[in-house]
Structure formats: C-alpha cells, structure tokens
Amino acid sequence: MNRNEILAALKNKPEVSVLIVGGGINGIGTFRDLALNGVDVLLVEKGDFCSGASAASSHMAHGGIRYLENGEFRLVREAVRERNRLLQNAPHIVKPLPTAIPIFKRFSGLLNAPLKFFGILDKPSERGSIVIKLGLMMYDAYTGAQRTVPRHKFYSRKKSLAQWQQLNPAILNTAVYYDGAILQPERLGVELLLDAEGENPEAHALNYVSMVGGSEDRIILRDELTDDNYDVCPKLVINAAGPWIDFTNRKLGFSSGFIGGTKGSHIVVQHDELRRAIGENEFFFENEDGRIVLIFPLYDRVLIGTSDIPIEHPDEAHCTEEEIDYFLKLTHRIFPSLNVTQEHIVFQFSGVRPLPRSVAKTASQISRDHSIEVLSGDWTNLRFPVYSLVGGKWTSFRAFSEQVTDKALAYLGLERQKDTRSLPIGGGRGYPREPGGIKRLIESLSAWTGVARERLRILFERYGMRAESIATYLNGGTDFVLKTLPDFTLREILFLVHHEKICHLDDFLLRRSMHAMLGHVTREMVEELAGVLGNSLGWNAEQKAAEVRRTLSILVDRHGVRL
Ligand SMILES: Cc1cc2nc3c(=O)[nH]c(=O)nc-3n(C[C@H](O)[C@H](O)[C@H](O)COP(=O)(O)OP(=O)(O)OC[C@H]3O[C@@H](n4cnc5c(N)ncnc54)[C@H](O)[C@@H]3O)c2cc1C
User: Fold this and answer.
1) Is residue 234 a contact partner of residue 16, using CB atoms and an 8 Å limit?
2) Which of 241, 262, 332 is closest to 28 using CA atoms?
3) To test the ligand 1 pocket, which listed residue (43, 44, 46) has its Cβ within 8 A of the most ligand atoms?
4) What is the position in ligand 1's atom list of the atom closest to the CA of 25?
5) Strand partners, 79
6) Substitution candidate for ligand 1 out of 19, 25, 238 with most atoms within 8 A of CB
7) Which of 178, 282, 290, 429 is a good FRET partner for 533, with 20 to 30 A between their CA atoms?
8) By three-state DSSP, how is residue 485 classified?
C-alpha cells in the first residue's frame, strides 16, 4: 500500500495491535521484528525515517571499547556480537573498518581505568599504551571464535610512521583493531522498513505523521503533509522517539524524565591529502581530557567528530564554531603537517544521543546501555501501556529490538516465530561472498538486462543485491542521465521515489543518497531534482518552488551548506 492507501485504511480500521512512535533505528528495528512475527503494527515518524539521532551517528558499528572502563562489559559483549552480525547481514552497507589509535603516552590511564571502574575517579584522561593493550585484548576475546574481523596489532613508532607518513612524529606507537563502518546508515534504516512491510501485509510505516496526543483507548495522529488528523486504537504503544521520548510521553499525560541527552556534532571535509594520509583507516583517539575524536574515511571525503555535550532540548542541537575549532585542532594534533581549515568543510551535522538521565559527572561516563521503561494507565486515563525505548546504539539496534519485541509479544499473548539474528537486510540478501562473485554477478546481470557493467557496478555499490530489481526497473521506460547528477539516471530516482517513501526533496538528498553529506549538492541540482521528483509526486510549480526553498534552508541552517 502507498501512503494514501495506508491512511485511508486507518480511517476505516483504527484498531492496531502495536503503534510505534518514532522511525529512528530503534523504532524501525522493533517494527521489523514485530512484523516478522505476524503482528499488525503501525509505525509513525514525524519527519523522515532516520532523520533524528539516527542521522547524526559517527557511522561506526562498534563494540565501544571505551565503555569497558565504565565497567559496561555486558554492553560491549552485546555490541561486538551485533557488530559481527551487521557485517554478516548487511555486507553491502557495513564494511570492516581498520581503526588506528595513535598513542602518545605509555602509562597514563593505567590507574584511571580500575579507579573509574570502582567509581573512585571521575575525570577522564588520555589512555596510555598499556591500558589500550588490555582493552583490545578483551575486545578481541569478545569477538569470539567467529573472527569476522582480524585481531588487533600494535605497531612500533617506526612502523607507524612508515605506514602513515603524515602522522605526528611525537607518537610512541599505534594500535590497530577492527570495527565496522556503516557507510549509509539512513539507507540501512529504509531497507529494514521495506523488508518488514514485504514480510507482513499488516505492517505499515508512515513518515511525516506525528503522534500529537491521546486519551482512553485512542491516539491522535497528524499527517504533517496535509494537517489531517487520524485516530488509532492500539493495544500497546512503543515510544521510540529517541531524544524526544519525554516530550512524547508528555503528549500522553505522563511526566517522565528518562532522557539526559548529549549533543554530538561532526564535520565532513574535502581534503585529498588528509584522505590519502588516512587510507582506509579510521583514526580513533582521545584528546588530553579523555574525550574521543575520530577521523573516518567516508567515500572520497573525511568525517571528523564528535563532541559529547549535555543538552536540554534536542531541537536546539547544531554544530557550533567552538566544536569546529575543536575538531580542526585535534586533526592538527594527529596530522600536524596537513592544513585542514574551515574552508575544507563541505557538510556538518549534529544530533542528540538519547542517553538515560544520569548523575554521572562527565558525559563520557553516562551509560550507553539501553532499557525499556514501562508506563501504564494507572497514572493517566490511557487503557494501554507505553514502553519507552531509552538509549541504544545503531550497532546494537537488533538486540534492543529483539528485547522489546519479546516483551511486546508476551504482553499480546503471542509466541515468537522467527528471529533476526542471521536475517540478511535489504540488499544484503544473497550478497556474493566468494572472490570474484560480485564481478560475475555484474556480468550476468549486464547480459540479462542490457545495462552497462559500469552502471551496474555503481548500482551494486549503492544498493547491494537490490541492484537487480533497480536494473530491471531501468529497462521499464525511457531513461537518461540527469544533467546535474551524471552518475544518476532518471529511472533510478523514480525507483527510489516509488519504492522508498520519499515525500520531500531533502529525503532524497540527505537520506536516500549521499549527495548532501559528501558535499556534491549544487543549486542547479536542487532545481533539476525538484522537477524530476515533482513530476513523479504530482507537485505543481508552486510546490516545486517551495521544495527548493525548504531544501536550501535545511542545508544552510542544519548543515552549514550555503548554495
Ligand atoms: C553524535 C552521535 C554519534 C553517534 N555515533 C554512533 C556510532 O558511531 N555508532 C552507533 O552504534 N551509534 C551511534 N550513535 C547512537 C545512535 O545514533 C542512536 O542511539 C540511535 O540512532 C537512536 O535511535 P532512536 O531510534 O532511539 O532515536 P532517533 O533516531 O532520534 O529516532 C526517534 C524518532 O522519533 C521521531 N519522533 C519524535 N517525536 C515524535 C512524535 N511525537 N511523533 C512521531 N515521531 C516522533 C523523531 O523525529 C525521530 O526521528 C550516535 C549518536 C549521536 C547523536
């Protein structure tokens, strides 16, 4: 069903077993698991899918080696396992990521780690090589026998400087271990949604629909595109509103205080020398006060982040001049000979981690674990319980969703029928693993569809095995390369519009493709796309102009991109 059909069906039948509020990764993961287990479930998202905290991540599928010193062993073990599963289940988007830690001290942090573990020390500080070695040994142990990624290695100063010639010569050595890179997290989110809807005809997800209130047996939804209201009568509500969880509970009459979010920002720079200097490695390090910084290879650009600053209202998060200075200064500390400046920034973004409210003295000490908080109608006149999903990470969304689904199934009196541990995601289904497999697949697909190999290679890189259905779709009508996006054709975009729930122009630029994040957007591109998307979505000239204005204003206000 398309958006209008889902909304029309809701008017006739407002009853649904589960309503999920929030289409970030935690809402989406739970939606998929419930759908897979035969539950009729509706997910509503006030903006686009994965446009909140889930759009602000550092793109890492990681166990969180740093959390070991807070004593969060369960969390790290779970996250490492989930990282391995993501590498297996979504190999088209999640790739092994060699991660280098430049080390400037031998002993620092040796006492801090146990002291912090026992709650005696509050101040973080830069770790020395011995503490890092111990942490990485534990991390390797958690990776287990599966060995989806190689074990860590320690390199001497000489070897480190031979491998990374621009690295600060003041280093003592480097440690290299493996995590995963989630190259296009927002696409992963949409593919999960589409999988769920494909699996269960009674599972529906709507973007641009807000939960605005509720009482007794009903919830009121508002269609943000038309301002129409709809009633839904759920048996259970799952509040997956991330950093907005408490605001959402307030709309239902609960005054919860679950979230104590911290803001994190990133910049994306176009700096060919820095990009060459890091190779395919992420550099992950601590500054002198123990805060984590990463320099991450993102296609032909470099992603640099992140901060960790307490914030009251998630809508206020934006990347500040101080944060940018901080990122540039730290990049200079690691690669002093490279001059990375404000001028190299092509994109910036900021978001709020939905962390549990905490009395920890520093942001880095707040637990990164997740939990389900249950509110029930004893406090309000609601006739259904509300589960709030507090915390969580991209990496461990599947495990968190599984825990929420188990609880929801028990509440609904249903048995689990399927689980998601080894379930491939979207274009990861049938992904070739053997050497030369991708090349062979492209050749046979090219022979079968007549689409050029080079074009198929691009589609395969973007969509994994979904490239097969896209290539078939390309043949279904007149196709041509767009003037301002030479590596996209008209029908590829039409495919995304028709199959991936695009409502606004910025959905395509910011979340279904990497154009905005990699700094490829031009004003002409925005205008050409308004025409292409508008013709397909039935926009008139005024709506097309409004979409252009909306996109330009989001780009400048939220991402520092002035066109
Ligand atoms: C700076 C930063 C870096 C991070 N880096 C990593 C990383 O490298 N690796 C990793 O694993 N994790 C990382 N994380 C953590 C991870 O991104 C988040 O924990 C995760 O995305 C939270 O997802 P969520 O679904 O709970 O929240 P969100 O993604 O925020 O989703 C909640 C959604 O609810 C919607 N909503 C709110 N109110 C309503 C309403 N009334 N009606 C309808 N919809 C509503 C919002 O629009 C939003 O889209 C990072 C987070 C941040 C902020």
Assistant:
1) yes
2) 241
3) 46
4) 25
5) none
6) 25
7) 429
8) coil
Containing 499, the helix (H) or strand (E) segment is: helix 490-499
Is the C-beta atom of 290 inside 6 A of ligand 1? Answer: no
- Retrieve residue 21's tokens: 């509020």
Quote the ligand 1 centre to 298 CA distance (angstroms): 20
Cβ burial, residue 160 (10 Å; 0-12/13-18/19+): buried
Decide: 308 and 363 in contact? Cβ < 8 Å.
Answer: yes
Per-residue tokens: 44: 């509503």
Sequence-distant (6+) residues with CB within 8 A of 546 are none
Res. 118: pLDDT tops 50: no
User: pLDDT tens across 274-332, in order?
Assistant: 999 999 999 998 776 667 889 999 999 999 999 889 898 999 999 999 999 999 999 99
Mean pLDDT, the chain, whole residue set? 92
For tokens 């002198």, what's the residue? Answer: 288
Question: Ligand 1 within 6 A of 401 CB?
Answer: no
For residue 337, count other CB atoms closer than 10 A to its CB. Answer: 12
Q: What is the pLDDT of residues 32-59, one digit of tens each?
A: 999 999 999 999 999 999 999 999 999 9
Q: Do you find a cis peptide bond into 306, omega within 30 degrees of 0?
A: yes
The model's confidence at residue 145, banded by pLDDT at 50, 70 and 90, is low
Q: Tens digit of pLDDT for each residue in 224-253?
A: 999 999 999 999 999 999 999 999 999 999
How buried is residue 19: exposed, middle or buried, by Cβ count under 10 Å (0-12/13-18/19+)?
buried
**Side chain identity at 25, as an amino acid letter?**
I
- The response to whether residue 306 sits with its C-beta less than 6 Å from ligand 1 reads yes
**pTM for the predicted model, two decimal places:** 0.95
| The predicted structure's pLDDT at residue 116 | 55
Q: Is 495 in the pocket of ligand 1 (CB under 6 A)?
A: no
Structure tokens at 172: 């003592």
H or E segment to which residue 374 belongs? strand 371-375
Of the candidates 395, 137, 356, the residue with the CA atom closest to the CA atom of residue 260: 356
Structure-model confidence comparison of residues 256 and 111, the more confident one? 256
How far apart are the C-alpha atoms of 130 and 137, rounded to whole Å? Answer: 11
Q: How far apart are CA 129 and CA 301, in angstroms?
A: 29
